[in-house]
Amino acid sequence: EMSSYGKRVAEEFARASVQAGIVTVSGLAEGIDGAVAEESLHAGGKTIAALGHGLAMIYPSSHKTLAKKIVGSGGLLLTEFPLDTTPGKHTFPARNRIIAGLSLGTVVLEAPEKSGAIITAELALEYGREVFAVPGHIFDENYAGCHRLISTGQAKLVHSPEDVLRDIGIVSSGRGSAVSAYEPQSPMESTILDCLTTMPQPVDDIVGKTTLSSGDVNSTLTMLELAGAAQNIGGGQWVKRG
Description:
By secondary structure, this protein is α/β, with parallel strands linked by helices.
């Protein structure tokens, strides 16, 4: 069960992420997931909920209203399962790999040793993504997983949302947008930077949005990466960095 401390931390991290222009991702589970989704919407942002079942139902049923709010606010309910698939032991770990794959970084909060959050963190590490963990009371078993990730060096200890935003290259402007310290050196760089966001995009999408040639886009992205303004996160997917 989510503690008042966990709820406060989840809401603070979700709110700061939205203010930085980030779309949050969770699994629509009770507790931390629900708090992240609710606060993301309350802060005026969008959120993605990856489901461990088909779209013919919402689990837990207590989140039916939340699911409708997510879609109504321009967010997304995402699943790889057929329409009538019901939740089971095998479906949630599969769901967790989608959460890890979609995210630039995974923040672990109130996670026992055996929990979905730890599975997601381990998958994120396999995918080469950043993993962060919020510490808690040393005698609280609900933080045992967080503390292990920190002590083994698998996760970076974070005290605030700004720790995460700085690490992934995003600066919270407090105005609902992500800002970059890099000054474009040409009109082409400016055009591509305007297209890039904190959500991964393939080169083909960037070419289509900018109407620049594939060669120009690829060469400019390389220069932007060298300057620390863009990052290839693998698979030809690009994001903006601060």
